Fold:
Amino acid sequence: MVHQVLFIVFALICVAGAVNLLVQRHPINSALSLVVVMASLSLIYLLLGAEFVAAIQVIVYAGAIMVLFVFVIMLLNAGAEERTRGSRVALFVGVPGMIVLAGTVGWLLVSGSGKLGGVEIGKLSFGETHQIARLLFRDFLLPFEITSVLILIAIMGAVVLGKKEG
Amino acid sequence: MVPLSWYLILSGILFSLGVFGFLLKRNIITIFMSIELMLNAVNLSFVAFANYWNSLAAKSPDGIAKLAGGAPVIPLSGQVFVFFVMVVAAAEAAVGLAIIIAVFRTRETLNVDRVNLLKL
Structure:
């Protein structure tokens, strides 16, 4: 019962933040509502028993990435969004297509709900840091090392792109 | 007990909202934030399915969950995938925001309708 109430509260906060992201016209308001979405998602990860993922969601996403976004918005002194026409294909094909896709997937999930089972809080010791560390440094060692090269390339790319011309 | 499908439906709702933001917003930074929202939605379904496989492994007699073909599933690999998605998202945010700054320097605008050339 408590689990369901907590899930519904945080899911509603999540969806409200995401809708607010779309409705707001100023990018800084959108960025702050995205922080709300990420914080409540990290609580939903805790309800799923994923402690490590919940912690890095707050540290990496809400901490590092969103600070970068807010920094760029303030650096560029971004004002409210201009109202322009935009792409007609996106409006008349993309939006109905996405509604149909989301409806189909949602219907499949609702009809197959029994097979998926449920989530019980506190039942499984699961997602603890030492278990994830064992996987990362043993089974997924090669992908883990490749991501460090990826990060290095991203740093160099950001420096090259940010450099002033000349 | 909360059905697993609730988590997946929440993930679907967040993903669709991200797609709508991507299609309808005109500010390049907000579009980029919609992409981050979609990545978050996918992360939620990864964690939900990691929980599903873990509960199957806990129920099975030998403690290993298996796919329909009999191949074993590494428990918690969904959460490790979330880690990789976050790494890629961080790299993407660094490069993407550097590109936005470079575009803004030459065009003085953040409206995507005015940024219609790959050239700076």
User: Anything to note?
Assistant: The longest helix of chain A spans residues 51-75. Residues 128-166 of chain A form one domain.
